[in-house]
Amino acid sequence: MAAAETVEIAIVGAGVIGLATALRLAAEGREVLLVDPNEPGSGASFGNAGTIAEYACMPVGNPAVLRALPKLLLDPDSPFSLRWPALFQLTPWLVSFVRESLPAATRANALALAGLLAEALPAWEEMAQEADMADLLRRNGCLYLYRRESGFARAAGGRALRAGFGVHQEVLTPGEVAALEPSLPTTGASGLYFPDSMNVTDPKTLMRRLLDAGTARGVSVAQAAITGLQVEADGVRLSGSGLRIKANTVVIAAGAQSRALAMQVGDSIPLETERGYHLEFPTEAPLLNRPVCPVDLGFYMTPMTGRLRVAGTVELGGLAAPANPRRLALLDRGARQFFPSLGRSSSEWLGFRPSLPDSRPVIGRSCGSPRVFHAFGHGHLGLTLAPITARLVADLIAGRGDPDCLAPFAVGRFAA
């Protein structure tokens, strides 16, 4: 290409954060180009558990996890694991994670997340109407399952934090769990029910609708990998994969791939990769009425259109290694503890979550340039926080709102 394509706003990354942000900006009359090497919405935005979890203010790093961390990391079948060949690379992140798991840091991180999550459901309902997605959402709650009394006791701190932030949660007896989910085996498990949460019946279709709504409002899409980002006096030059773009404003929303791009504009962010997995099992009729999370196993079982998706666990270990068959086998064995007659899985998936030690995303203006904005690092909450993040980024670009309210999510917090 002889000259760079020019555009008002380029969004690097077409996951759910990028798609929602593009839709929001285009609805405000902005010229928007989405750039991603893959099909829009095909990464973690497609492969997640499909939960819109307004209750999930408890950070991944917390005192309960910290107490169990040595055992978790040494057990290859635990819900929280790492690839040992990546230990050297992960050590700085793990040190920060331990620090963020201390009680005072946990509370500060939970408070920040709770504030961001407070408007998640109404924001999703608004975006669902705008993008014609309401039929893909079910507001039927989510159930945490505690199969051991010791596990329920260890989770007391999380329940107390959520209660203090006004999260609607209900403790259920084993009988109430059975009434809510009669297909689950009778195990005497206690439950924690979040009655207001929503889930997605088909994430792939939802991503397609979100893309279609954006393109109908003028959003353009380029399938390319951006590897270069250079701030110039009159804009930001993006390059890669034979593509050259000159944008007045750039939004980095590339998920787990965002760290290298942020570094090129001068922002050093301790972003690591959680390798997430899912299996899907065809079902003639739904086996569950809502997402169910057996807390000790660390995954969700979510009823979706024509199938049950089993998704979750945490595996730290970067972007390059192939799928770990042991993690997929762990999901398979776990699902069969509840539904022994499941047939063979129809699909398996590995994707990458962008993970920060404090579980807070990075949302805000770059320290290196007023033309670059960050919107990544949402960890397990990308789907949940997409419309809120889109609104905040659009406000920042337009000079609206109070930037100080975003201080807990600013890139500058890592400079201390």
Automatic annotation (TrEMBL):
Stretches that traverse the bilayer: none
Name of the protein described by the UniProt record: D-amino-acid dehydrogenase
Keyword Oxidoreductase assigned: yes
Pfam families documented for this protein: DAO (PF01266)
Any one cellular-component term (Gene Ontology): cytoplasm
Keyword Endoplasmic reticulum (UniProt): no
Organism: Mesorhizobium muleiense
Gene Ontology MF term list: oxidoreductase activity
Matching InterPro entries: FAD-dep_OxRdtase (IPR006076), FAD/NAD-bd_sf (IPR036188)
Superkingdom of source: Bacteria
Record domain FAD dependent oxidoreductase: where: 9-396
Keywords annotated in UniProt: Oxidoreductase
